[in-house]
Structures are given as structure tokens and as C-alpha cells.
TrEMBL record:
GO molecular function term, any single one: transmembrane transporter activity
Domain ABC transmembrane type-1: 25-213
Function: Part of the binding-protein-dependent transport system for glutamine; probably responsible for the translocation of the substrate across the membrane.
Membrane-crossing segments per the record: 24-49, 61-81, 93-110, 193-212
Subcellular location: Cell inner membrane; Cell membrane
Name this protein carries in UniProt: Amino acid ABC transporter membrane protein 2 (PAAT family)
Amino acid sequence: MEDFIRLFLNVEVMLRTWPLLKQGLWMTAQLCAVVIGLGLVGGLFLSFLAMAKSRWLRWPAFVVIDVLRAVPPLVLLIFIYSGLPFAGLDISPFAAVAVAFFLNNSAYYAEIYRAGIQSIPAGQTEAARATGLTSAQAMAYVVLPQAVRNVLPDLLSNTVEVVKLTSLASVVSLAELLYSANMARSLTYNSSPLVMAALIYLAFLWPLVRLVSRYQRKLAV
């Protein structure tokens, strides 16, 4: 038991390596802010294209969404980071991770948005148009708020997955939380920093998971 505590729950090692983990946590927070923010906007744009009346807009959007959902994010990340330089496009680790995860999550957000918008009866749009609103105003002020409320648990669930997905950034040596924890482990020959990183992820994600569950129960009622 003492050996287990010394190797995995060593408070002294955790405190000594906290500055390194704090830098990794800050990098993870920046990455999440960029990926989630761009993903929400990009997903909304893709969902509008997927529901466009013109098939020249609709079908390419479906193809893009299906391809981005089918390609594993790690494969997409390695392709952008290691493949694009052969085409003369050098890209930083942060930019590579941000672009790869933005593309991947935009597709998932797009499908969530589309499901939410299609769940709103057409009569809502017709009623909004009858009051003098344009199609764009009806979508922005009437349909979209209700659609987001209907799919909010799915949006939150996907956001949780995005936060967990950022741990893959360590593959391209981006100093996010997991990479920093692994560096601390190699420097101290102790696994306690990895346990601390896991606890940090838990502290951030558990409230979101509980919020999703609570909101799903509320919608069910």
C-alpha cells in the first residue's frame, strides 16, 4: 500500500510538478476555447448548407459532414501536422490541433444543429413570417433558440468529448495537460502527475456530465 501511494498518490511530487501541469492546463483551456468556439460556428454553417434548397449546396455539405465524421480525428491531426509540410505548408502544433479538431467537431455539431432545427414544426416558421419577419429573422429569433434548447444535452455531450479529445494533442508534442503530466512523470520517475492530470480532467468534466444528465431528465419529463 505504501508503494502504491508513493508511486501514484505522492502529494509531494504533485505539488512539485504543479507549475508544469498548470501550464499544460492553460494550453488545454486555450485549445478548448478555440476548437469549441469555431466548432459551434462552423457546425451551424454546415447545418444550414445541409438544409439548403439547392442540391448544389446540400449534397457537398452532406459529403463533407460524412467524410469528417468518418475520418478518425487522430488520422486527421497527423495528416495536417505531418502531411501538409510536404506540400510546403508548415503549421504549428497548436494550429494543427485546432484545425483538425475544428473540422472533426464541426461535422458533429452540424448534425446536432440539423436535428434540432428539423424538430421544430414548420408552423413556427410560418407564424413568424406572418408577423412580418424575414426568413433569416424567423430562423434567428424563433426557430434556432428552440432548436438549441431541444438539442442542448447533445451539444453539451459533444463539448465534453471535445475536451477529452484535446488529450490527443500530445501526439504532436503540444504541451497540453496530458503531455505536461507525462513530461513530469518522466522527470520524477513517478506516476503521480498522471493521476493529478486525471483528477483535473474529472474536476472539469464531471459537473458538465451531471448537467447533461439533469437536463436530459428534465426534457424527458
